[in-house]
């Protein structure tokens, strides 16, 4: 005869059998339709995507190329509008200022540090390329240092607040969906510079490597789904190719 504990245990098992049976029936079927549904959930564009970019720009000022280095971070809204905050710096001598007075050579160095509000409207985005219109606003500090080239002595330093804008056109070529090259052509306009009324105006270019982490993560998730569904149905292979191409 079963003792009291054994009887209770047997009753619990009998009561749980229907739930176990129906849970097995209700498991997701590995069909082509289910695969496409799961895949579309993965490839659906998100409302907000995080953004991080290491940026380098080349300003052209009176025949001289000045390299500006920086980075920005923010969000991309609905694959259309990029909003980020950035930081940039420039430290270089200005060849256009070199002077020789009484056999003494003088030069002027510029040290520019500024934060920026970066925006970009992406008006065309296809499998292999995308086009955008960036518009940035920068504000920070500009320092001009006048030195004696012969002995390196500094005879004057002027610094002040600077406010500028940069605008242009951008393009990304994506031979691989997650990897490409991004280029920008634009113009920089100084709106205010308290450092000796110096205006660093002129065209600029930017080119760099484009890496889309979202596409990499998406491909990993799609690969896992493809592997899981392929075990159940060979017909879904065609669906995978249609969605990932």
Summarize the structure.
By secondary structure, this protein is of the alpha+beta class. It has 4 helices and 8 strands. Helix 2 runs antiparallel to helix 3 and helix 3 packs antiparallel against helix 4.
Provide tags for this entry.
single chain; 245 residues; 8-stranded antiparallel barrel; 8 strands; 25% helix; elongated
Descriptive account of the structure:
With 245 residues, the chain is an alpha+beta fold. The protein contains four helices and eight strands, in the order ααββββββββαα. The chain has helices spanning 4-25, 32-43, 213-230, 236-244; strands at 48-61, 64-77, 81-101, 104-125, 129-148, 154-176, 179-193, 202-211. Strands 1-2-3-4-5-6-7-8 form an eight-stranded antiparallel β-barrel. A hairpin with a 3-residue loop joins strand 2 and strand 3. The longest helix is centred in the first third of the chain and has 22 residues, at 4-25. The termini are far apart. The model is unreliable at 19-28 (pLDDT under 50).
Topology, please?
Layout: H1 4-25, H2 32-43, E1 48-61, E2 64-77, E3 81-101, E4 104-125, E5 129-148, E6 154-176, E7 179-193, E8 202-211, H3 213-230, H4 236-244
Helix pairs in contact: 2-3, 2-4, 3-4
Main sheet strand line-up = 1-2-3-4-5-6-7-8
Mean pLDDT: 80
Radius of gyration, in Å, reads: 30 Å
How would you describe the shape?
elongated
Kindly state the percentage of residues in helix: 10-25%
H/E series, N to C?
A: HHEEEEEEEEHH
Cα distance spanning the termini: 67 Å
Low-confidence stretches: 19-28
Instruction: Please indicate the percent range of residues in DSSP E strands (runs of 2 or more).
Output: over 45%
> What summary fits the major beta sheet?
8 strands, antiparallel, barrel
- Strands, count: 8
Helix/strand class: alpha+beta
Q: So how many helices?
A: 4
């Amino acid at each position: 005869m079963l003792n009291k504990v054994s009887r209770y245990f047997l009753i619990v098992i009998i009561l749980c059998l229907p739930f176990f049976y129906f849970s097995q029936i209700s498991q997701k079927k590995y069909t082509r339709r289910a695969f496409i549904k799961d895949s579309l959930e993965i490839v659906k564009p998100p409302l907000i995507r995080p953004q991080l970019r290491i940026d380098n720009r080349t300003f052209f000022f009176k025949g001289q190329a000045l390299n500006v280095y920086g980075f920005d971070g923010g969000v991309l809204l609905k694959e259309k509008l990029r909003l980020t905050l950035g930081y940039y710096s420039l430290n270089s001598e200005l060849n256009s200022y070199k002077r020789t007075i009484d056999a003494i050579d003088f030069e002027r160095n510029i040290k520019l540090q500024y934060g920026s509000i970066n925006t970009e409207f992406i008006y065309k985005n296809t499998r292999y390329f995308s086009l955008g219109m960036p518009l940035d606003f920068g504000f920070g500090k500009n320092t001009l240092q006048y030195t004696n080239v012969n002995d390196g002595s500094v005879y004057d330093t002027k610094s002040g607040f600077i406010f500028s804008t940069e605008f242009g056109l951008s393009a990304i070529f994506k031979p691989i969906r997650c990897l490409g090259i991004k280029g920008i052509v634009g113009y920089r306009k100084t709106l205010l510079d308290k450092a000796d009324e110096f205006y660093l105006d002129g065209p600029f270019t930017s080119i760099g490597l484009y890496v889309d982490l979202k596409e990499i993560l998406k491909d990993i998730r799609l690969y896992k789904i493809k592997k899981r569904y392929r075990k159940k149905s060979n017909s879904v292979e065609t669906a995978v190719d249609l969605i990932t191409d």
